[in-house]
C-alpha cells in the first residue's frame, strides 16, 4: 500500500506524487478521466493489484476530479480518515470524519430502501459506490477490528459511538452497493469479531442487523462455537436483545437449503445423508447444540414468546429503541407503517369522542400502544421460529421437555385472542411495498409461524395433550369410558399442572378460528396441518371423537364439496386431515354419509379426489384400511355403515381399487420421488398388502398386466413399479430410517411391509406373486441403475 502523501509545500513531494500518479495510470501522460479512474479502481478491487484506495492519490488530484465528477468529497474524506486512523491515534479525528461521511451515505440508502431513488436526482456514481470503490469498506473493517491488535500488551480501544458510526456506514453501503455484503461475508474473522460488538447495548442493534445481512449471503454457515464466550454473551442479553438475536439465530440453526424440502427428490436427499454421515454433524446441528448448552436459553425464549404486551419494555426505553430503528433503515419502514395506523386510530377515536361529547385522545398518546403491539409481534415471530427449528432438530425430546416445563403452550393459549389471532382494523399493518393479504405482513407471518410451531409440537409426541385444558382432558377420559376402551396412556401420563388454563385449550381455540376462516384464506393449509399433527401417530378413537363433536368433519366436507376449494395445497391438507379423522372410526363414516347425502354431492367429492391423487391418496389409504377392518368385524353398527356409506361401497369395488392402484404407480418414478409424493408408493403397497392378506395378490397383478396391455404400454407400469420397490427397500430399510410412521399410519407391522415387498421383488418367474412373472421377456427392464450421481 502507498504511504501517506507528503506535505503540500514540498517541491520534491509534489514531484514524487505526480510521478506516482502517472505510474498508477501505466505511464499515460494525459489527464485521467473520472470513468477511467473508477474502472481502474474496480479492477484493483477485483484483483488486489494497482489502484485500490484513496490513499494512492494526492488530495489535490482528488479535489480537482471531484469538481468534475461530483463525488461529494468522499475520496478526500477517506484520505483524511486513513491518515487519522494510525495505530497510535486517539480516534477523535476519525470520529469527526465519520460524522461527515455518514449523512452522505444514509440519505442515499434511505431513498434506496424506500424506493424513492427514482424520484431523487440520478447520479452516475452513487456515494456508497464511490465510498466502496476508494477503499472505504476495507478501511472501516480495519478500524473496527483495531481492538484485536495489541501494542506492548495493551489492546487498542475505540468508542462505542465510533463503532456505531462505522457499522451504520457499512450497512448503508451494503444496502446500496452490490457485492459489498458478499465481500464482508468472505472475511470470516471479521464476521466472528462482529459478535463481540453485541456486548454493548449502544452498538447491539446496528451490529445485529449487519450480521443478519452478512449471514444471509454467506456461502458457508458460521459455527457459533467459534464465537468467543458465546454462553456469556447470550446470557447477558436483555430480553429485547435476545429477541433481536433470534433473527441471527434463524440463519445459523436452519439447514442451508436451496429449495422447498418437500420438493427435493428422495434420491438427492439419500445421497446427501450418506455424505453427511461421513462428514459428521452439520454446522446447523452444531449450532443448535451450542445454543441448548447455554443455561436458561430455552426458558428465556419461552418467556419472550408468552409475555403479554403490558409486560414488555417501558414506553421510554421502547421509544428510544424505535428512534434507533428509525435511523436503521431496515426498520424505518415498520415505523412508517405504525405512524399510519396510529393516525387512523386517532381519527377514529376523535370521531367517536365528538359523538359522545368527550375529549379525544391525541395521536401522541395513541402511538405507543400500536407500536408496542407490532413490536411484540415482530419479536415473537423470530422467537417462535427458533423454537420451531429446535423442536425439529436432533435434540427434539430435550427441547420438548423444556418447552413443556416452561409452559410455552399455556402461555400461547393466553395470548391467542388478544395478540396471535387478535381482531384488528381493516387497515391492518403491513410493511412498505406489501399489501394486507401478503404473507410478509407481520400479523400474517406470526399466525403462520404459530401454526407451524403447533404442528411441530404435536407431531408424533405425547406432549400434544398439553394443547388441552383439564376439562377437555376429562372429556377424553369420558369418551374412552363410554366406548369401553382403555384410556390413552399419554393422557393418563400428562402433567395436569402444565396444560392450558381458561375455558378453552389451544386446540379448541384453533378449531374455532379454523371454522370461521374465509374460503380464500392462506391460513387454511397451516390450520389443517396443525390439527392433523394432533391426530398423527397411533390412531386414537377418543382424539377423533373429541374433534368430531366439535364439527370438524362437517367443516372439512363443506370446504371440499360445497366451497369447491381450488387450492391444491389446501385440498391436500384437508384430505390428509379427513383421512386421520375418519380412519377406523365408524361414527366418522356415519357423519360422512349424513353430510354427503346425495349422489350429486358424492360426485363432487369424487371429482376432487380424482383430480389429483398426489393430494388425496392418504384419504384413499385410510378409507381402504378402514374398509378392511370393518369387513372383519361382527357388529351391527359396523354392518349398518358398510351397507349405507357411499364412500365405503365405492372403495370396496375391485375396479375402483385397480384404477387407484394403476394411477398411483403411474404418476411416480424413482427419479421424481419426493417427501410429498412418496405416499403414493406406500398407498399402492397398502392396497397390495391387503390383497395379499386375502390371497388375491396374483389377481391384482394379473389385472395390472391387463390394464398395461389395454393402454398399449406392455411392461411400462410393472417395470416402473419394480424399480420403485427396489428404491423402497434402499430407502426404508436403511438403519437411520424410522419405520414406526408406516406402522402407525396403517396398523400393519413393518415386518409385513418388508415381506410383501420381498415377495413382489422375487426374481423367480414361476412365483405367482412376483412382478417379473407378469412382465413379458421382450419388455423386461428391471435392472436399471437409478442411483443419482
Automatic annotation (TrEMBL):
One example GO MF annotation: phosphatase binding
Residue ranges the record marks as coiled coil: none
Region of interest (Disordered), ranges: 345-364
One cellular-component annotation, GO: Cul4A-RING E3 ubiquitin ligase complex
Keyword Transit peptide: no
The keyword Transcription regulation appears for this protein: no
Positions with biased composition (Polar residues): 349-364
Gene Ontology process terms (BP): ubiquitin-dependent protein catabolic process
Keywords from the UniProt entry: Receptor
Protein name according to UniProt: Short transient receptor potential channel 4-associated protein isoform X2
Organism annotation: Vulpes vulpes
Amino acid at each position: 500500500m502507498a504511504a501517506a502523501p507528503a506535505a503540500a509545500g514540498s517541491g520534491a513531494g509534489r514531484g514524487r506524487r505526480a510521478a506516482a500518479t502517472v505510474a498508477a495510470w501505466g505511464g499515460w501522460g494525459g489527464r485521467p478521466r473520472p470513468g477511467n479512474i473508477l474502472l481502474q479502481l474496480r479492477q484493483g478491487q477485483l484483483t488486489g493489484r494497482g489502484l485500490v484506495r484513496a490513499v494512492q492519490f494526492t488530495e489535490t488530484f482528488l479535489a480537482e476530479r471531484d469538481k468534475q465528477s461530483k463525488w461529494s468529497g468522499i475520496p478526500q474524506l477517506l484520505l483524511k480518515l486513513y491518515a487519522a486512523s494510525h495505530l497510535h491515534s486517539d480516534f477523535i479525528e476519525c470520529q469527526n470524519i465519520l460524522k461527515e461521511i455518514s449523512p452522505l451515505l444514509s440519505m442515499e440508502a434511505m431513498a434506496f430502501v424506500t424506493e424513492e431513488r427514482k424520484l431523487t436526482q440520478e447520479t452516475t456514481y452513487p456515494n456508497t459506490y464511490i465510498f466502496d470503490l476508494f477503499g472505504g469498506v476495507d478501511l472501516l473493517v480495519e478500524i473496527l477490528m483495531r481492538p484485536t491488535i495489541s501494542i506492548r500488551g495493551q489492546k487498542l480501544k475505540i468508542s462505542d459511538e465510533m463503532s456505531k458510526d462505522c457499522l451504520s456506514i457499512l450497512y448503508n453501503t451494503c444496502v446500496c452497493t452490490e457485492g459489498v455484503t458478499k465481500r464482508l461475508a468472505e472475511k470470516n474473522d471479521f464476521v466472528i469479531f462482529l459478535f463481540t460488538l453485541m456486548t454493548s447495548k449502544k452498538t447491539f442493534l446496528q451490529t445485529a442487523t449487519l450480521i443478519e445481512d452478512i449471514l444471509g449471503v454467506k456461502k458457508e454457515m458460521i459455527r457459533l462455537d467459534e464465537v468467543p464466550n458465546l454462553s456469556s454473551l447470550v446470557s447477558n442479553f436483555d430480553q429485547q436483545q435476545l429477541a433481536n438475536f433470534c433473527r441471527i439465530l434463524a440463519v445459523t440453526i436452519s439447514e442451508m437449503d436451496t429449495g422447498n424440502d418437500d420438493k427435493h427428490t428422495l434420491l438427492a436427499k439419500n445421497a446427501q445423508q450418506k455424505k453427511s454421515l461421513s462428514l459428521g454433524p452439520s454446522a446447523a446441528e452444531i449450532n443448535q447444540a451450542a445454543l441448548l448448552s447455554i443455561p436458561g436459553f430455552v426458558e428465556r425464549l419461552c418467556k419472550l414468546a408468552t409475555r403479554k404486551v403490558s409486560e414488555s419494555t417501558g414506553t421510554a426505553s421502547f421509544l428510544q429503541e424505535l428512534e434507533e430503528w428509525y435511523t436503521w433503515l431496515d426498520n424505518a419502514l415498520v415505523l412508517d407503517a405504525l405512524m399510519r395506523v396510529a393516525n387512523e386510530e386517532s381519527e377514529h377515536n376523535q370521531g367517536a369522542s365528538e359523538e359522545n361529547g368527550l375529549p379525544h385522545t391525541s395521536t401522541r398518546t395513541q402511538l405507543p400502544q400500536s407500536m408496542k403491539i407490532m413490536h411484540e409481534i415482530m419479536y415473537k415471530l423470530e422467537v417462535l421460529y427458533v423454537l420451531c427449528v429446535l423442536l425439529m432438530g436432533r435434540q427434539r425430546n430435550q427441547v420438548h421437555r423444556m418447552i413443556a416445563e416452561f409452559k410455552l403452550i399455556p402461555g400461547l393459549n393466553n395470548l391467542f385472542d388478544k395478540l396471535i389471532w387478535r381482531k384488528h382494523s381493516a387497515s391492518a399493518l403491513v410493511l412498505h411495498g406489501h399489501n394486507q393479504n401478503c404473507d410478509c405482513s407481520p400479523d400474517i407471518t406470526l399466525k403462520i409461524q404459530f401454526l407451524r410451531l403447533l404442528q411441530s409440537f404435536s407431531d408424533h409426541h405425547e406432549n400434544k395433550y398439553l394443547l388441552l385444558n383439564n376439562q377437555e382432558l376429562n372429556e377424553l377420559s369420558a369418551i374412552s369410558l363410554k366406548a369401553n376402551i382403555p384410556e390413552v396412556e399419554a393422557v393418563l401420563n400428562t402433567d395436569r399442572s402444565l396444560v392450558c388454563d381458561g375455558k378453552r385449550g389451544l386446540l379448541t381455540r384453533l378449531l374455532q378460528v379454523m371454522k370461521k376462516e374465509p374460503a380464500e384464506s392462506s391460513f387454511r393449509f397451516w390450520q389443517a396441518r396443525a390439527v392433523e399433527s394432533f391426530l398423527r401417530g397411533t390412531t386414537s378413537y377418543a382424539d377423533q371423537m373429541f374433534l368430531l363433536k366439535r364439527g370438524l368433519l362437517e367443516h372439512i366436507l363443506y370446504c371440499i364439496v360445497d366451497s369447491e376449494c381450488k387450492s391444491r395445497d389446501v385440498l391436500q391438507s384437508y384430505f390428509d386431515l379427513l383421512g386421520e379423522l375418519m380412519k377406523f372410526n365408524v361414527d366418522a363414516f356415519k357423519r360422512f354419509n349424513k353430510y354427503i347425502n346425495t349422489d350429486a354431492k358424492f360426485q363432487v367429492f369424487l371429482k376432487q379426489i380424482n383430480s389429483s391423487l398426489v393430494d388425496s391418496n392418504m384419504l384413499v389409504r385410510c378409507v381402504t384400511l378402514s374398509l378392511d377392518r370393518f369387513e372383519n368385524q361382527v357388529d351391527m353398527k359396523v354392518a349398518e355403515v358398510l351397507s349405507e356409506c357411499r364412500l365405503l361401497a365405492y372403495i370396496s369395488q375391485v375396479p375402483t381399487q385397480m384404477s387407484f392402484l394403476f394411477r398411483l404407480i403411474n404418476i411416480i418414478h424413482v427419479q421424481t420421488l419426493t417427501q410429498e409424493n412418496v405416499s403414493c408408493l406406500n398407498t399402492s403397497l397398502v392396497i397390495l398388502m391387503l390383497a395379499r392378506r386375502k390371497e388375491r395378490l396374483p389377481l391384482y397383478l394379473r389385472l395390472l398386466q391387463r390394464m398395461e396391455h389395454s393402454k398399449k404400454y406392455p411392461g411400462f407400469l410393472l417395470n416402473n413399479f419394480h424399480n420403485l420397490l427396489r428404491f423402497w427397500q434402499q430407502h426404508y430399510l436403511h438403519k437411520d430410517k424410522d419405520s414406526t410412521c408406516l406402522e402407525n399410519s396403517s396398523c400393519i407391522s413393518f415386518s409385513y411391509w418388508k415381506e410383501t415387498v420381498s415377495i413382489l421383488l422375487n426374481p423367480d418367474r414361476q412365483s405367482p406373486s412376483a412382478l417379473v412373472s407378469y412382465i413379458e421377456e421382450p419388455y423386461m427392464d428391471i435392472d436399471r441403475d437409478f442411483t443419482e450421481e
